[in-house]
TrEMBL record:
Membrane spanning residue stretches: 12-30
Taxonomic path: Bacteria, Pseudomonadati, Pseudomonadota, Gammaproteobacteria, Oceanospirillales
Native species: Nitrincola lacisaponensis
Keywords: Cell inner membrane, Cell membrane, Chaperone, Isomerase, Membrane, Rotamase, Transmembrane, Transmembrane helix
Name the record gives this protein: Periplasmic chaperone PpiD
Ranges where the PpiC domain occurs: 266-366
Length: 622
């Protein structure tokens, strides 16, 4: 046979085939042959442009690394939801593709020389102030990039930043707009409200059995139980191996002596702060503007504690005047700690410091040094530390045994007996989860509804719930979806009907009261809660009611209104007066506010641009 192949390979057809292969290699590389039958399906398509699955996986890995770094050295990787990370990264890649396409359509360009300049001027790639190739490659390797991959990412990000900068730098606000916004922000109102609860009406409302039956008949086809499983499981807990009584006094004494040799007196600082939170009601620029405003007041002699009580969004310290007490550096987030431990004099106040929680104004109240603990003071903690270290080793050993025993066993009896564990049973769990700790874990859900467990009734591999617990599960009972019976649905349907009828009845009643008040009548049975001079952050007025009050026009007073509250109750509102602030801004404050508001407007316009690109794009997620 080999001779036959050798003879045939000398023919003209064989030579043509070899020539074609050579040309293919020369023009397209070996990937062109391998990829003919194995091209991977892209993660998504954006206006006909593919997003490669390898880019998605690389992005997920990078995102995971960044989150674990933010979580600190004790981060637990099992707490990260890979499915959620993948969805988030894919949406970011889709948005990046849209923005790059938009920038290229507008003729934005980045030369290779400019990319080189960006790279060599990046401090992370420098040693002693100069670009270092080895440092460059080391940083990229730790981040999971090659130099070519990084250049392409840098090119895309810089291109999109050009368009974003065009929006941010071209937006502006006028002095009149700033003054109007400041007047609105510092406006106060005299308000009053009456809360009319739904509960009293609910207790007096009834529905007939026939109405409940009719609602059930109407919805019967859609009233289905979810598919569920009941799990058997064994739980391995590291804490079960912690036994301080097994640690000898000599071990504790040895660790104590080592601790004394390594002891460094840690400095603690007494600190107070004012937090201006970034949330759904206030973005980062608005929070910074408020923090800057308070900082200027403090520079002019305002009382720190009073401002903290009035404006701080930290519920734990605001009522105490912002006081946090003595804290070490390790108890604080990096930016906060850096600002605090750079202060030199008691009473120093920082400029606004940004953290993940918002903007802080920080005051240094005192400094003290830590003292060396005695053996008696440290013995308990050191004994527990040794016991936990030994428990960790034992836990890892038992985890490996659990994996072997579970894989080779037809049930959980053998693993439970060998490792002295208890076989327990879960409540029914659906694909969307359950209320117990197993039902809230995405990895358990994925395993429970896999073919290995659901169809073949195998044991799962050990699933790490967190850094201290692992579980092996198997399906004990499979509960297919079925139609809910009338008896099972009756109470919920009855409550729904009663709530709808009571809400309608209450709304009709308070609407009549509103009409009477607007007609000038006095309703003596209403007990009004009144607050004079309320501002937009006044805690004396419930937040949802306060927002409604500042949304009412003030053409004439008193002004009455009606609103439904989130708990189903209703509130009658009375706006009695509006006081316009006459605060004059300094030139410095005016320039700062114009800059901040202009940037906010530019960011909003840019986000509208991104939303428009998404709405007009053809996006296919695979």
């Amino acid at each position: 046979m080999l001779q036959s192949i050798r003879d045939n390979s000398k023919g003209i057809i064989a030579k043509i085939i070899v020539g074609l292969i050579a040309i293919t290699f020369a023009l397209f590389g070996v990937e062109s042959l391998i990829g003919l039958g194995s091209k991977e399906k892209p993660a998504a398509e954006v206006n006909g442009e593919d997003i490669a699955r390898i880019d998605l996986m690389r992005g997920v890995d990078l995102q995971r690394r960044q989150l674990l770094m933010q979580m600190g050295p004790d981060a637990d990787p099992t707490l990260l939801d890979d499915a959620l990370l993948e969805r988030r990264v894919l949406e970011n890649l889709i948005e990046q593709a849209l923005l790059v396409q938009s920038a290229e359509r507008q003729g934005l360009f980045l030369s290779e020389e400019m990319l080189d300049q960006y790279i060599v001027s990046t401090p992370d790639f420098q040693v002693n102030g100069r670009f270092d190739r080895n440092q460059f490659e080391l940083v990229l390797r730790n981040a999971g990039f090659t130099p070519l991959m990084y250049r392409e990412l840098l090119r895309k990000e810089t291109l999109t930043d050009q368009e974003r900068a065009a929006y941010l730098l071209s937006s502006f606000t006028t002095q009149d707009e700033v003054e109007r916004i400041v007047r609105l922000d510092q406006q106060t109102r005299d308000v009053a409200w009456v809360r009319i609860p739904l509960l009293d009406v609910l207790n007096d409302t009834q529905v007939a059995e026939s109405e409940i039956q009719a609602l059930y008949d109407q919805r019967a086809s859609s009233l289905q139980t979810p598919e569920q499983v009941v799990l058997e499981y064994v739980l391995l807990d590291r804490n079960d191996f912690v036994d301080p009584s097994l640690v000898s006094d000599d071990e504790v004494r040895g660790i104590y002596e080592q601790m004394l040799r390594d002891f460094v007196s840690e400095e603690e600082r007494s600190v107070s702060h004012i937090l201006i939170e970034v949330d759904g009601q206030r973005d980062a620029l608005a929070a910074l503007a408020k923090a800057q405003e308070l900082y200027l007041e403090l520079q002019e002699g305002a009382d720190f504690a009073e401002l903290a009580r009035s404006y701080s969004d930290d519920p734990g310290s605001a009522s105490q005047g912002g006081v946090l007490g003595y804290l070490g550096r390790e108890a604080l987030v990096d930016a906060f700690a850096d600002a605090l431990f750079q202060m030199e004099q008691e009473g120093d106040i920082s400029e606004p410091v940004q953290t993940e929680f918002g903007y802080h104004l920080i005051r240094l109240d005192g400094v003290r040094k830590g003292e060396r603990p005695s053996f008696e003071e440290a013995a308990y903690d050191l004994r527990l530390e040794i016991a936990e270290r030994e428990a960790e080793m034992r836990y890892v050993e038992q985890m490996e045994r659990l994996a072997d025993l579970s894989f080779s066993s037809a049930d959980l009896i053998v693993p439970a007996e060998e490792l002295d564990l208890v076989i327990e049973r879960s409540e029914p769990i659906s694909r969307d989860g359950g209320s117990d700790f197993l039902g809230r874990n995405s990895r358990v859900l994925e395993a429970a509804f896999s073919q290995d467990l659901l169809r073949d009734r195998l044991n799962s591999l050990p699933i790490e719930l967190d850094r201290e617990r692992a579980v092996v599960v198997r399906v004990r009972e499979h509960l297919p979806s079925r139609q809910i019976t009338f008896d099972e649905a009756r109470d919920e349907l009855e409550l729904e009907l009663i709530t709808a009828r009571a809400t309608e009845k209450l709304e009709q009643q308070v609407s009549e009261w509103l009409s009477a008040l607007q007609a000038g009548e006095t309703l003596d049975h209403l007990q009004w809660s009144e607050v004079a001079g309320a501002d937009r952050a006044d805690s004396r007025v419930p937040s949802e009611i306060r927002q409604r009050f500042f949304g009412l026009s003030a053409d004439s007073t008193p002004r009455y209104d009606l609103m439904a509250l989130r708990d189903g109750s209703f509130a009658l509102l009375r706006l009695d007066a509006v006081e316009h602030a006459q605060t004059a801004l300094s030139d410095e404050e005016m320039a700062l506010m114009m800059s901040l508001l202009g940037a906010t407007l530019g960011q909003q316009e840019y986000q509208n641009r991104v939303d428009s690109l998404r709405s007009q794009a053809t996006i296919k997620r695979n």
